[in-house]
Design brief:
Elements lengths: L7 H5 L25 E4 L5 E6 L5 E8 L13 H9 L10 H8 L3 E6 L4 E8 L3 H13 L7 H20 L6 H9 L14 H5 L3 H11 L5 E7 L3 H12 L22 E7 L6 E8 L5 H14 L5 H9 L7 E6 L4 E8 L6 H18 L3 H18 L3 H15 L4 H10 L3 H11 L6 E7 L11 E2 L50 E4 L5 E6 L5 E9 L12 H8 L9 H10 L3 E6 L3 E9 L3 H13 L5 H18 L3 H14 L13 H4 L4 H8 L8 E6 L3 H8 L26 E5 L5 E11 L6 H12 L5 H9 L3 E8 L6 E10 L3 H13 L1 H4 L2 H18 L3 H14 L5 H11 L2 H11 L6 E6 L1 H8 L6 E4 L7
Parallel strand pairs: 2-6, 7-11, 7-12, 14-18, 19-23, 19-24
Antiparallel strand pairs: 1-2, 3-5, 3-6, 4-5, 8-10, 8-11, 9-10, 13-14, 15-17, 15-18, 16-17, 20-22, 20-23, 21-22
InterPro entries: Metalloenz_LuxS/M16 (IPR011249), MPP/UQCRC_Complex (IPR050361), Pept_M16_N (IPR011765), Peptidase_M16_C (IPR007863)
Protein name: M16 family metallopeptidase
Organism: Bizionia hallyeonensis
Length: 942
């Protein structure tokens, strides 16, 4: 995993440029916004930050190592990311594989990530596992290097290879980052290579290389440890000293100074992409590093150029010349340097020279019109909401405190970030535009589908990319657990054996209130005052089920069009009105429901709901916007054809439900159904949006009386609910058959394996979820442990049952190395077929403990609380359904588990959908002994 933890301001600013006069005054963000914390330093140099948050019985732990790919050397790239993987395998005082397996079994979640600049390890656990997580985390940090074996090294190489195949080689536009980096940054610059690095470099890695990297960078003085959640400061200090205090300081790691780059000339490069279906243009300008004073103005510049209806690049590229459904411009800052990026994924068969010329035209318009002062005020209103959203969970608070401490030297830097952003003026924005963009050199990439070189920018030069060849029967890729290392344990003055659990925290359902509005809409609420935020959702039954026959996508398109203005507001004016409140309002349609959602500060809830009412009751029916959205939809549907996972999902659902069932068709429709949709279809569907049978869900800093007082305004919204149609499931389910879809030269095979199981209203639904936990419930599941940890065939493998009123499928999903396709299928087939027989009393106990404890952290966010309310309103669950499910889980016996598995998970009734390289895999999959049928990428028999 390779995330980028941005400063919150940089991550969450989303600016829109409009002209309507706002209600005054427009507030700026609070100047003293901060997160409370206590900081201290251990004798070994480890900096520790504590934050107390007792709202949930959970604790988040994040260790941020000041080492990323920027510390690597040419010829040894990808080591920081590879070492992150190695760190999860074993350590001196923790059982082999415990980090990936035990933490989920304690009810926790865990992961790591590597960027250009840092490596982060993080966990969130129930409070009773707090000391256990300090034990396992400190052992990974300070006591793992002696346990590294050649077998573990070779196995993890395969896992990282699979990650690269999944994220880069088997993904459209996956090589673009490599092309940009190698041309933007000179040889030897720490950002000249990608974080995942070169696979030949990785394959050549030795144990000596791993140890050298660890000894150089994994000292305590090169890290920040953050602990946030339900903790006692004095007790935590004692525990941190015990578990982390003996970790060696390590050698001094020299601080890296900013290394901005300049380009002597503009570089234009092209690449034919095996997966891409659309041409894409990127332009990347060298800019400034994270925390540089100009980074704040550049972030705002990015949103002013393209982030609204009135933004000049949006106007020219999208609205006027209709070259693409959207355009994005943004500042991307890292520790040593930064990039300002222009990115356009154009409509099918669009010449990228035209896109480049349109961007130039939009920039000329920006220079002429300048920056509207009102846009800056609106950004600050949006920013206040986003600041609170960005630290609304204990893990996000830990990330923010740790990043700002490690890279800015100040855990409370978020306060400075807010002030620096507030201080940005229109003159600042124009200054950075002239300083970093206007008439400056850049790297430009034209990535086009195979055989469409006529679309690249004129005079572009071919980019060079190293592409792996995956071969059958490669002995070095067959790996296993291997022998454990032999070593002498590091001496400690403490007992470093596994500590006991603390007192078991008990999950209790939050208080839920309900009420009915006069117009027939039901209201469900949870009051939570941790932050001054509110999240809400209006769920209207129907969704895609109400789409006209052969016109799948009508509900989805309506949800997009209704946000394009109202009868009294142009699209730009509506966009600005929402932004000035620091709010977000969205609409979307699912298979069974139509949703209107929003987030705002509590103080702006009334005005936000007033806008929601206007959107619902006074649609604009803007024909120009409708045509633009339809063109964008056509482009997005074409782009979907480049995604192997989307290809697999489409065929899988069609085979399960039959092509005429709404659940077989993506909510946005298909290129075939898209052609049948008209604006009149959307107007006809609009009559289905009525409050009768609809449900309003709200979570956040609003009481019942305050909420109902505001929602009275919605009583003028009236209407009679339509009859929701029902659809027959196919009598034949294509069982026990393999369906293969050829995507030539695929480095991985995408696997979807399963069958229709049950509806969320079925009394067995929760029991089946419980029963799946051992098989495919995260990294501790047998699928993950076998296919990734033991065999190195995949980056991940999971299983589970969907949630819907309609019967939902049980599905096993994975993307496996192409030359391990057959072996992976054999393992999955055997594991599912014998699951009931191999389920033990120990599995019963493990499932119970894991899921009971996981509930303590599962409902922390406002979004999770909204999900509780949606489950209650949609499926008729009781207000204490989670507690009842817990009681049912405790009562389940081994026989109950075996019965539920045998009832719903019969392997011979399952279908196998595989998307991969036919040239190498067709003869292999036939060895599984099932009938094999070839389909095209649309799920049709070939």
């Amino acid at each position: 995993m390779q995330p980028k933890i941005y400063s919150l301001i940089a991550l969450f600013i989303f600016c829109m440029s409009c002209e309507e006069k706002p209600k005054e005054p427009v507030q700026e963000i609070e100047k003293d916004f901060a997160i409370d914390y206590e900081k201290f330093t251990l004798d070994n140099g480890l900096e520790v930050i504590l934050h107390q948050d007792n709202s949930d019985p959970i604790v988040a732990v994040a260790t941020i190592m000041h080492v990323g790919s920027n510390r690597e050397k040419p010829g040894k790239t990808g080591f920081a990311h590879f070492f992150e993987h190695m760190s999860f395998n074993d350590s001196e005082n923790v059982p082999v594989g415990a980090n990936r397996k035990m933490i989920p079994e304690w009810g926790g979640s865990r992961n790591g990530g590597t960027s250009n600049d840092y490596t982060v390890y993080y966990e969130v656990v129930p409070k009773d596992a707090f000391e256990k997580i300090l034990w396992i985390d400190s052992d990974r940090f300070g006591y793992m290097i002696n346990t590294v074996t050649k077998a573990a090294l070779e196995r993890e190489k395969q896992v990282v290879k699979n990650e690269k195949r999944q994220r880069v080689d088997n993904a459209a536009y996956g090589y673009t980052d490599e092309i940009i980096r190698s041309n933007l940054y000179p040889e030897g610059h720490p950002y000249n290579w990608t974080v995942i690095g070169s696979l030949p470099d990785l394959q050549a890695a030795t144990i000596e290389d791993v140890k050298e990297f660890y000894n150089q960078y994994y000292g305590a003085s090169n890290a920040t440890l953050v602990i946030a959640g339900d903790i006692d400061f004095e007790e935590t200090k004692t525990l941190v000293e015990k578990w982390f205090g003996e970790i060696p300081s390590g050698p001094e790691v020299e601080s890296l100074q900013p290394q901005p780059v300049t380009l002597a000339e503009t570089k234009s490069l092209y690449f034919e992409d095996n997966f891409a279906k659309l041409p894409e243009l990127r332009m990347v300008f060298p800019s400034v590093e994270e925390y540089h004073k100009d980074s704040y103005a550049l972030q705002i510049l990015g949103q002013l150029l393209s982030g609204s209806k009135n933004a000049p690049l949006y106007q020219v590229v999208v609205e006027e010349q209709k070259l693409a459904p959207n355009i994005s411009t943004y500042q991307y800052s890292s520790e040593l340097a930064g990039e300002f990026v222009f990115r356009v994924r154009a409509n099918e068969q669009t010449n990228l020279d035209a896109v480049k010329k349109a961007i130039d035209s939009g920039l000329i318009r920006f220079e002429k019109n300048g920056v509207n002062e009102r846009d800056l005020k609106r950004i600050k209103a949006e920013l206040e909401t986003n600041l609170y959203q960005g630290v609304s969970t204990v893990l996000n608070k830990a990330f923010q405190l740790g990043q700002d401490n490690e890279f800015a030297g100040d855990p409370s830097y978020i306060t400075k970030t807010a002030k620096l952003t507030n201080a940005v003026s229109a003159d600042d924005v124009m200054r950075v535009y002239k300083q970093y963009i206007k008439n400056k050199n850049y790297v430009m990439t034209s990535v086009v589908p195979k055989g469409q070189l006529d679309l690249v920018v004129l005079d572009a030069k071919e980019a060079t990319v190293w592409i792996e060849e995956v071969k059958q029967d490669v002995a070095s890729e067959e790996v296993g657990q291997g022998e454990e290392a032999e070593y002498e344990k590091t001496v400690s003055k403490y007992d470093r054996s596994e500590p006991a659990f603390g007192e078991l925290p008990k999950f209790k359902m939050p208080a839920i209130w309900t009420e009915n509005l006069e117009n027939g809409m039901r209201v469900f609420g949870i009051e939570n005052n941790e932050t001054p935020l509110v999240q809400f959702d209006i769920t209207i039954p129907g969704g895609q089920l109400l789409d006209p026959k052969n016109k799948a996508g009508v509900a989805s398109m309506l949800s997009n069009l209704m946000l394009e203005g109202t009868a009294n507001k142009t699209p730009a004016e509506l966009e600005e009105a929402i932004g000035l409140l620091g709010a977000t309002i969205n609409m979307y349609s699912t298979n069974e429901d139509f949703h209107i959602t929003g987030t705002c500060l509590e103080k702006n809830f009334e005005e936000t709901i007033a806008l929601v009412k206007e959107i619902i009751l006074e649609p604009r029916w803007d024909e120009a916007e409708y045509k633009r959205l339809m063109q964008g939809l056509e482009t997005n549907l074409k782009d979907r054809e480049s995604n192997p996972n989307a290809i697999a999902s489409l065929a899988y659902n069609q085979l399960l439900y039959g092509k005429n069932h709404p659940s077989a068709i993506p909510g946005s429709g298909t290129l075939e159904s898209f052609k049948n949709i008209s604006l009149d279809d959307l107007k006809a569907y609009y009559s289905n949006l009525v409050p009768e049978n609809a449900n309003f869900h709200i979570a956040g800093a609003m009481s019942k009386s305050e909420t109902l007082g505001v929602l009275e305004t919605l009583n003028t919204w009236k209407g009679q609910a339509p009859q929701i149609p029902t659809f027959q499931l196919p009598s034949e389910n294509n069982k026990n058959t393999i369906y293969f879809i050829d995507v030539p030269d695929s480095k991985q095979s995408v696997l979807n394996i399963g069958k229709l199981a049950l509806s969320a209203t079925n009394d067995d639904a929760q029991s089946l979820d419980f029963a799946n936990e051992i098989l495919g419930g995260g990294s501790s599941g047998r699928l993950f442990q076998t296919l990734r940890i033991e065999k190195g065939y995949t980056y991940g493998a999971y299983s589970g049952t969907g949630t819907s009123l309609e019967v939902a499928p049980f599905t096993v999903r994975s993307s496996v190395r192409a030359n391990a396709t057959l072996k992976s299928l054999e393992i999955i087939q055997d594991m599912v077929a014998n699951y009931a027989e191999n389920f033990t009393e120990a599995d019963v106990e493990l499932t119970k403990n894991k899921l009971l404890k996981a509930n303590t952290r599962a409902y922390e966010s406002l979004g999770a609380k909204l999900a509780i309310l949606r489950n209650i309103s949609k499926y008729g669950y009781s207000n204490d359904y989670i507690e009842k499910n817990q009681a049912a889980l405790i009562a389940m016996t081994l026989e109950d588990y075996k019965n539920i598995i045998n009832k719903y998970l019969q392997e011979p009734e399952m279908i196998y959908v595989i998307v991969g390289d036919k040239a190498t895999q067709w003869s292999e999959i036939k060895k599984l002994g099932k009938p094999v049928v070839e389909l095209d990428i649309f799920g049709n028999p070939k």
